[in-house]
Amino acid sequence: MQSVIESKVQENVKVLREHHIPLTTTRLVLLRFLVTNRGHYSAEDIYQILKEEYPSLSIATVYNNMSLFAKLGIVQELRIERDKVIYDTYPEPHDHFLCLKCGRIYDIETATRSLPKELDGHVVHSAHTYYFGICKDCRES
């Protein structure tokens, strides 16, 4: 298991190097967190989880690095809620469902669809589909 984690971390380190971005201790800590914690996190969530073990970590550093990682495709940046940015540690294309009752975000695997390169003369770089409703856990309670 450890070798799989390290392999994924090294894949992300390679992305940083390809873009001539220095590998700092903080970036390595964040990359390890992302590889070992699949889910949906705000920068604040990540900071709260890591600050006890890494007391020199600052919230600004987490914000800046998560934004950088999103631009590099290491994480997905979700804007499923108007005033909050969430980072999905699973960068492969997939849809998301937001429960309007409990606020939890779920990954939704839908049929593979290809992203058009162009729509009505516009160049397409990415697409996100968000579903909103009540999750099965909230429906049952």
Overview of this protein structure:
The mean pLDDT is 92. A 3-stranded antiparallel sheet has the order 1-3-2. A 3-stranded mixed sheet has the order 5-4-8, with no helix packed on it. The protein has 2 domains: 2-88, Winged helix-like DNA-binding domain superfamily/Winged helix DNA-binding domain (Arc Repressor Mutant, subunit A, Orthogonal Bundle); 95-140, Dna Ligase, domain 1 (2-Layer Sandwich). The radius of gyration is 17 Å and the shape is globular. It is an alpha+beta fold and 141 residues long. The termini are far apart. Helix content is 40%, strand content 21%.
Q: Main attributes?
A:
141 residues, alpha+beta, Arc Repressor Mutant, subunit A, Dna Ligase, domain 1, 8 strands, 40% helix, 21% strand
Sequence-ordered SSE layout with sheet pairings:
Layout: H1 2-18, H2 25-36, E1 40-41, H3 43-50, H4 59-72, E2 76-81, E3 84-88, E4 95-99, E5 105-108, E6 118-119, E7 122-123, E8 130-133, H5 136-140
Parallel strand pairs: 4-8
Antiparallel strand pairs: 1-3, 2-3, 4-5, 6-7
Helix pairs in contact: 1-2, 3-4
| % residues in beta strands | 15-25%
Low-confidence stretches: none
Question: What is the arithmetic mean of pLDDT?
Answer: 92
Q: Count the helices. How many?
A: 5
In order across it, which strands form the biggest sheet?
Answer: 1-3-2
Number of strands: 8
The SS-based structural class is alpha+beta
Estimate nothing, just give the exact number of structural domains: 2
Query: What is the CA-based Rg, rounded?
Result: 17 Å
Assign an overall shape: globular
Instruction: Please state the second-level CATH architecture of the largest domain.
Output: Orthogonal Bundle
Please report the first level of CATH classification, the CATH class of the largest domain.
Mainly Alpha
Give the CATH H-level superfamily of the largest domain: Winged helix-like DNA-binding domain superfamily/Winged helix DNA-binding domain
Under CATH, the topology of the largest domain is which?
Arc Repressor Mutant, subunit A
Order of helices and strands: HHEHHEEEEEEEH
Measured between the Cα atoms of the first and last residue, the distance is: 36 Å
The biggest beta sheet, please? 3 strands, antiparallel
Percent range for helical residues?
Answer: 25-40%
